[in-house]
Specification:
heterodimer, A: Beta-Lactamase, 6 domains, 5-stranded antiparallel β-sheet, 21 helices, about 15% strand, elongated, B: alpha+beta, 6-stranded mixed β-sheet, 5-stranded mixed β-sheet, 11 strands
Chain lengths: ~800, ~160
Amino acid sequence: MIAERTAENKFSIFNSLITNDHREFYEKIINELIGISPICNQGKCTAAAISENATEQEQITDLMERVETFAVELHDGTKKLFDQFYLAKEDFCRSIYCTTAYIKVNLIDRTLLERTCDVQWWSLESAFIESLMKLNKISKSLDKQLYELNEYLDASKAAFEVPTLETNWTMKDITRYVDDVRSFLTRKRDLMFSKKVNEEFRSKADALAEQLGMGKSQEGTLNMLAKVKKNLEEANERITIACSRLEDIRNSYTIYKDLVIVLPDGTIVANANAETRAKLVGSNVNGEEWFRRCHQNDDTTEYSIAQTDHSIVEESNSLVFSTKLRDLNTADSPVIGSIGAFFDLEEEARIILEDYMPRMKNGDIKEGWFSFFTDKDGIVVGSSDSNLIEIGKPAHLPRSHRKLQAGETMSSYASFEGGESAIFSAMSDGYLDFAGLGWSSHLVVPTSDIFASESQCHTNGISPDELMRSRLIPEINKHTYVKVQDDKQSIKLISLNGIVFASKLGRRGVALGPVFEQITETGDFATSKMEELLREMAFGELRLNLQTLETFSKQAIDLIDRSLFERSAAIRWWATDQYLWKTLAEPTDENVQLSMRRLGDINSSYSMYRNIVVSNRMGRLIAASTPELVPDLRDVRVADHPWFTRAMKSKLGGEYAVQDVGKTELERNDRPSLIFSAPIRQNGSRNGEIIGVIGSLFDWVTESGKVLKTCLPKDKNGKKIPGCIAFYTNKNFEVIESSDPSVVALHAVPDLPNEHRELAVGESVSGVLHFNGQNYIIGSSRSKGYREYEGLGWSAHILRPLF
Amino acid sequence: MQLATFVLGEESFAVPSLQVEEFFKAVPITKVWGADSRIDGLVNIRGRTAAVINMRTCFELPPLDRPGEMMLLETESGLAEEARKIGLTAFEEPIVLLVDSVSQIVSIESNETFPSPAHTKQPFVEGVIQKQDRYFTLISTEKLIDEILYQIGETIG
């Protein structure tokens, strides 16, 4: 375990972690230092030979002894230095890789929190509740009708037993028709939910009706048949509505593989995926874990999460978010069904796990690097390489990594899949009010990559000495640096004194000259090697610090991209809301009030919107979520606002538009806003004519400020490192939010090197920078969007002062 | 002749190494009131009290931001035979020169010494030494000490 190593481990050349470069390095220093002792002995003998003066001899011997003591000290110093070197690297790698592991599980937690909100929000969707209640009613009345129909059929059959003049049909003939219909009477579920059975029944019923129509006094049976048919038609209609709303959701939020509405007995009533609908609707999920969990949950507003890879709804690895649907108009709000949303865990895990991984030239993840998630039982739920780390199997992790506490991190050296590796793990501690699922994230890094020698990195004119004095370098290393320089000075002075001393002995001293020259040389060699090592250490620290800033800048842009993806999904879903299209079609006072209330409800269940507005297609606002603002907005015309015009231009259903951060007439006090918009179509249908636009004013200042704060570098104790600045730039490289506007001003175009301005999509860079009279290190990352949210060409930048 | 070279700021200087008793890291200096501004104060070297001449002040350079190094000059009684032979002299009392850092001991031939440039205002600059492509300003410790003591004499007198 890395943490324990610090206490017990002293440098040993036999430690397998030591790189070959360093072994060679160490050997050279030691060889030189070992050479000192014979030189000093030679010096002492020479002293005796050249001088009979006891004081002189003593002076020479004294000098030699000082040199010897020094050599021993240098030897110890070298070992300590290597210790520090490796510990510093371990320390830093532990911090950066544990953070990375944590960021990954935190990303999952953040996504899952959004999903729990989604499913709770959808459980209130009136189309689902109305459909379920209607279906319930239909089901009950069908019970009675099918029973009665049975009786009628008996009567009809009896009436046909005696052939009359009116008909030539034999009894046998009518019996076949009656029995055909009767065979369906016990299959109420199939009749209601299976399109195929329903169609079969209708054709049989029609055939029977045709026959009965020839008989006398068959109105009762015919009426009953018609009633059943009508009921079934209505059921079908309700199912279609529910399916269509589920499809709207799936089109808006593309992260779900399927969504289902289920009756309390487990019968699937509707689903979102049209391809599997014929198979799914009417089938039963009663035995499935997610369904069982959903119904065990007694809390009225609670959601359940279950992981599944063998549901009849979706075979691939999914997380099912479910909640009960209730009839809220009845006093004890009885459960009338449930909704299950099958979240595409596989794809989500892939995106997160493959991120933050070093890649080879061909784009593959570097060999020996792995990233995976395990659930609370240690079973792999997502893997960056599922051939080696199989999903569904227990992960081969050291014991200490399998029982972490919430938020705890752990690191160890272990052999992993045959490679000497360091494993870094972090357990989820949830996000906000989402407690998490007890998952852990693991990052495996080859040991050789942790201790690889530092190639000199681009330092933009920062000298190693400056770097050594900078705040990036831990105090202990600075002390060593000072100590080495001090040693170097001491050796020099000892040698100089020796040389001067020898010269004063005149001819007698000549023999001592080479001794001191050798000492100078050895001392210089050893100390300059140590300085070299220290500089390598400094460059290593710099590189890891740069990597940290890259990681943080990437986290900053990722978090905002993910948040904006959610906004883009939500706006598309709201645009299909029936209150809104009804109001646009018929803007009566009552409808407007209903829409306002609806928008208000939506806004109050989120905290990140300043306002949500609806405009008609002429650009006149007709409703807003915040009634207080209505007087202010009464005269605002949005016809030329980019969010409006862009949404009006959309062609396909399920499109959205964005107006980049900036001032808007919809905000008071010039507060910058980011506006998402989507067209509202006639009857809420996907291809209907556009009759208005919904726009949401994202609270950019607050939300982006929060994310930037999260991504500012912190020290070991989690305290913010002073002087760091995080900011976002838009595609024109103007600052759109800054954690410290006094240094990086809003709207300014910061003077950063080109490689930070011209980043490719998803690219990260870092470097040393002179900015605003200060030396900084900087990490920048450009947005790569998230799923089908493409991003707006923004970048995130994190600055950390060197001094 | 062997010279002990040292650095002040960017420049290199030299004194005859036979006039140096010992090099050591700078030790704390006790201020002495009323002394010449070039004398920083007194130090204790193994029981002997020595006056410290700050070489930076002698060349009107700003003070150093780190401790620096010291050179203890030989006293009259400690001067080696070798030194007397080539005509070097020493002061009776221990004197310490405070410099940025001591560099090395170099041997020079007489043809490598040149007289001091005309623009030099410091009277204790004896000449310039060219060793390969490097230049050292040679300082006469006798003249340096004489001048400072003379100045003190003036002040007292």
